[in-house]
Amino acid sequence: MTGWLAVAGLGPGDEAMVTPEVRAALAEATDVIGYFPYVARVAPRDGLTLHASDNRVEIDRAQLALQLAASGARVVIVSSGDPGVFAMASALFEALETWPDLQTLDIRILPGITAMLAAAAHTGAPLGHDFCCINLSDNLKPWPLVERRLRLAAQADFAMAFYNPRSVSRPHQFARALDILREECGPDRLITFARAVTTPEERIVTVSLAEAVPEMADMRTVVIVGNAATRRVGRFVYTPRSAV
3-class DSSP state for residue 9? Predict the structure, then answer.
């Protein structure tokens, strides 16, 4: 098999945050596969075929990529942020499990800057001590499991970063998440809403849990909740490196 397959992170939005490694892979690719808005970030050129698809067909995308690479194509699957964080790298390996004859294929995972890390950097250093990252969507796991992980993380006093907090199809769940956080962390804990980070639409707001309302978040928002020691310094929010 002379083809290869890379799963690449395009970063949070700003083209300056796409790594040189990812740019090099895209420059060599014959095929780019991904969700519509991510493929739209790749400039068309001669010799490159763009395969854009809906966001609910991850396994189909992975299977197409494997088939193309096995036939000799140079394939890049694009994700936003980092491909290993709630993105296409895991979907690729899930598909690869059912294709034993392709498991010797040249496959690379090319990291990218996550929305979580970009949001934290633009906020200050809210993830400066132990932290966890939770996807609040219940599309691929049951909501009771989301609640359990959220409650246990809060009880352990992690700083927390949340992806996919609130969508049109499930507007009530983030309200429930805020209730759990207030129960476990109290009303004064700092919570940051970082929307469309690194794009012209970027908006970052930090309030207390008592002031937070569900409408502050949507699917373009990363939410960061501090631990018990997280505090403000000037216009920044940070979590000290020492344990509480």
Answer: strand
